[in-house]
Structure formats: C-alpha cells, structure tokens
Amino acid sequence: MTSLDDKGFLTTRFDRSGQPRREPGPIDLSRYVAAPSHSGIPTFMGIPVALTPEDLVAGKVDCAIVGAPTDMGSGHRGAGFGPRAIRHDEFFLPNCPAAIQNPDTRVKPFEVLKVVDYGDAAVHPFDLELSCGEIRKVVREIAQSGAKPIVLGGDHTILWPDAAAMADVYGAGKVGVLHFDCHADCANTMYGSLVTHGSPIRRLIDDEHIPARNFIQVGLHSYVMPDDDLLDWMRRKGMRSHHMAEIQERGFDAVLETAISEALDGPEFLYVSFDVDVLDVAFTPGTGTPEPGGLTPRELLPALRRVCHECPVVGFEVVELAPQLDPTRSTVMYARRAILEALTGLAQRKLGITEKNYLHPVMAGRIR
To answer: 199-233, pLDDT tens digit by residue?
Structure first.
C-alpha cells in the first residue's frame, strides 16, 4: 500500500501490481453451494464480488451493488451502517441467489441478470464533501463499464454524487430522477451547510446536472419540509412533486401513472432514489428522520418493480437506513426487499416483457 497523502486514505488505493495475477472477472467467495445467511463472507445475498472496472467488463455485469456509508449529512449517527446491515441481514433462505424468485412475477432476477457486489466507496470520517467526490468516482466507474449501480446508503446526501455520476456518463440534462421520499430534500442549506441530506437536489440543479423539471417526487408528507418559501421555489423551478395529499385525493395507482409519464417526459434515462422514510414509520422506524403518514409496502414495493421494468432506469439507490434505531430489523428487510424488487423489474425489462404492471397470471388469480 502506498503512503497516505495530506487528504488521507480517500486518494490512496491498494497497489495490486505485486499480487498474483488473475484473469479479470467476478470472484465467488462462497465455499458451499448454499449456506445459512449468517455464515460466510457477507456480500449482498451471497453474490460474487468485483474489485475493478475490468472485472465488471469481463464479467458482463448488469448491476453492481455498491455501498456509500455516509451519515455526516443527516446530523444523526447510524446511516453509515446501512450498507453493512443490508448485506448482513438474515434471510430465511440460504445465501443462494439462484433460489431467489419474485413472488408476484415468478421472475428469478439473479438468473436473468449478472449481479456483483462492488464493495463500498471510501467515506472520509471528517469530510463529507470529499467523501462525495469519491462516491461519485466509484459510481461513475460502474456506469462507464456498462453496469447499473445499485447504491446502498448512507444518508441522502449521496443523491448528489450518485446522480451527478449518471450525468457524467449519460450527459447532463439526459437523466431524470424519480424520488420516493417523505421530505423534499431541495433546501439550499441546513444550519448553514450546503452539503447535507436535505439539499442534494438543490446541488444537482445548481450544478446543472439534472434539470429541475426532471425531478419527479412521490410521497412527500413532512411537517417541516417543504415550508412555504421552499414550496414556492420548487414550483417556480418547475419541479414535479406528488404529495401524500394528492395520493389521498387521486389514489396511489393514478399518481404512479402520472409519475411514470413525467419521468419519461424528456429524459432518455432515469435514476431512482428511494428514501426509507417515504414508508410509514410503522414499517420503517429505523431512520433518522421518521414521520407518520407515509406509503405502505403494498403500494411502494410493486411501484419500484414497475418503474424499473417500464422505464429506462440506469441506477437505483436506497438511503437513510439507520439500523440501530430498529431492533425489529423490519427497516433493513424493507430496504433489502426494495432492492430485490428493483432487480426484478430490471430483469423483466431484459427479458423483453412488455405488459405494463406485469404479474404472473397464476399469482394474480387469472389462471386457477
């Protein structure tokens, strides 16, 4: 390992030139075909790992799981443990990706997609902005390889580097963001700081990575954000936001149809950001900023699958999981399930399934 410079470990990667040579490609760390989920080296669902962009290209990887373990942007300690919690989460099946089958569609995402675990981006414990630079670099190298990054947060500050990396690869103004959240997250500052979990959208708009009209928000229901001034700014900028009041008025299915239509209105590509606090706190108490009155899993989980199936999604993130706040671990389970639903939707798209809101006919009760 080379010596650290004045910016610390974030600028220093291992020099692997002296290590035994290997052919590029994913590395399976499993010793057994199937093992209990609490055993072995923890990767997401027991999938192989990749260490370099060359591994991603050689493995013809479709999706790469990558952690971005930040929590300095939220003012609450704990979200930094989100990626590790998702990887460590107990599952009633052995860690055997081939056994995973979506119950609604009967699609096996890990048979259709080549999915690897790309480890974590380095997070500087004293410098959030520097951390965002490294996160952007790692997410960008995944996208440049042709794979889709599936980012495990970390607080919502990471939307700034994650979506900026998408704009780096696919072009500024060509990527839209579909944002499921309790909070608007487009404040200019929080307590005077520009880089926070409540301001990533403002940074992306100000930096001209993502046009304001291409942020589509679903599920906003906070008592504190947006206030009247911020709501006025959002409307003047042309952001399109769907609050819980609209969902109560029109119904979730109608709002989702509108959101999908808006997401495809202009952008060639779409990035999906899922904040666990969009779900009602009864389901996801393990987050630093919980508020009652959110979506139910029966609304959200099929929606994530549907969006990843029907839209040109190039990346997905789950953020604001603070596992130590939820001794029941239900928040971790919903975070992991959201990723599995997203992967299922991407698999359906790869399979060429064209039916909107697809369900297997037996599962849907159409065939007895």
So the answer is: 999 999 999 999 999 999 999 999 999 999 999 99
DSSP string, 230-276: HHHHHHHHT-EEEEHHHHHHH-HHHHHHHHHHHHTSS-SEEEEEEEG
SS3 212: helix
Kindly report, residue by residue over 77-99, the tens digit of the pLDDT. Answer: 889 999 999 998 766 556 788 88
DSSP H stretches of helix in 287-329:
297-310
Q: Is the pTM of this model over 0.85?
A: yes
Reference 198, options 157, 239, 244, 152; nearest CA is 157
What gap in Å lies between CA 66 and CA 316, rounded to an integer?
10
Residue 312 to residue 193: CA distance in whole angstroms: 34
Is residue 23 within 8 A of residue 88, CB to CB? The reply is no
- Topology of 35-351 in CATH? Arginase; Chain A (3.40.800)
